[in-house]
Amino acid sequence: MKAAETSHHFFKSLDGTELHYLRVMPEKKRGVLLLIHGLAEHSGRYRFFCDYFAKQGWAIYLLDQRGHGHSPGLRGHVDRLEDLVDDLAEFVNHVASQEREQALFLVAHSFGGQIAVNYLARKTKVLCGAVLSSPNLRLAMKISLLKRLFAHALVRCLPTLQLPNDVDAGLLSHDPQIARDYLEDPLVGHKITLKMGTEILNNLKDVMSLAPQIKTPCFIVHGEGDRIISAEGSREFFQHLTVRDRTLKIYPGYLHETFNEVGKEKVFADIRTWLEERLPK
């Protein structure tokens, strides 16, 4: 079988910003996956996921969110969280226009999962399903009261002031190479702005209430050992979902990055089965 071809592209979002995405195209397609990454990372960190699913015949479109990867914008900053939700909506529409005959599924990790939940609550009818990997619905890592008060006091006058995002690379995966690659990757950011941080935290106050609005079939995967984003948040969100087609899988011992974890093949196989069962007949 011919190897999948990877190429770089841009599309125009609502405000005219040209956002970057990777496209991984297998020789023969059975469906399309649209992937949105987490905070301060980028589309190029999903090579294991792409290698696995491209070999199964899935085309994969991977968005670099604004301020991330090869997309423009101040690193780790957003004026409004809704801007990222709008970007995702435009990305889905863009890919749908390119893949009119294919079934589309959204795959979102961590902070990307938080953006995806806000998008799915808009009751999109374009997607056949959504996979949420360790979605940011409740933090497990602690943010000090001092940092919260500091951000609240200064965000209006210094919205672009950058602070460390406090992500411990050692908590991403049991594979030590993942941490080394993360720390050495020039496209990985290690700071976010006050505005980005407050937008994330403010949205977390309401994100659980969005669950009943989602009508898209959902598969949530989360590592029980995740100390960055709480697996309990995924459990609670799952309980609030009212869509009939919903599945939750918690993986004992797995850390935050289920797609880069030791044993990721099990996660990939479960996702593959879930996707194949929802392909149009």
Quick rundown:
This protein is an alpha/beta fold and 281 residues long. It has helices spanning 47-55, 81-98, 111-120, 145-154, 176-184, 194-204, 231-240, 264-277; strands at 5-12, 18-25, 31-36, 58-63, 104-109, 129-133, 162-164, 191-193, 218-223, 246-251. It is globular.
Write the layout of secondary structure elements.
Elements: E1 5-12, E2 18-25, E3 31-36, H1 47-55, E4 58-63, H2 81-98, E5 104-109, H3 111-120, E6 129-133, H4 145-154, E7 162-164, H5 176-184, E8 191-193, H6 194-204, E9 218-223, H7 231-240, E10 246-251, H8 264-277
Parallel strand pairs: 3-4, 3-5, 5-6, 6-9, 9-10
Antiparallel strand pairs: 1-2, 2-4, 7-8
Overview features:
alpha/beta; 281 residues; 10 strands
Q: How many β-strands, per DSSP?
A: 10
- What is the number of helices? 8
Question: What is the strand arrangement across the widest sheet?
Answer: 1-2-4-3-5-6-9-10
The class by helix and strand makeup works out as alpha/beta
Largest sheet: 8 strands, mixed
Write down the overall geometry. Answer: globular
What gyration radius follows from the Cα positions, in whole Å? 18 Å
The arrangement of helices and strands along the chain is: EEEHEHEHEHEHEHEHEH
Distance between the termini: 25 Å
What percent of residues are in strands? 15-25%
Describe the structure.
By secondary structure, the protein is α/β, with parallel strands linked by helices. It contains eight helices and ten strands. The strands form two sheets. It has an eight-stranded mixed beta sheet, sandwiched between helices. The longest helix is centred in the N-terminal third of the chain and has 18 residues, at 81-98. It is globular, with a radius of gyration of 18 Å. The protein starts with a strand and ends with a helix. The model has no long low-confidence stretch (mean pLDDT 96).
